[in-house]
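Same chain as my last thread, 75 residues:
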Amino acid sequence: MRLIIALVLALSAAGCGTMQYENTSAAVDANPLCVNQPDRPGEPVASNCERKATGSWSTERKSEPVDLSGKKKED
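reply #2:
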């Protein structure tokens, strides 16, 4: 019963907003300048070689009317 309630709450919250997740690990691995990074804690790392994982929650709705008439749109 608890699982069903948790599932219903999660699905209803998912319909109210969007989650955007950003991770820079792949870009850091692909950058040849980031190969020789400092290996000691506390040493500075270049800003484009810093690994970051961030997430942002948004409840902003971007709604646009949907044209279902099948007519071509002229710009």
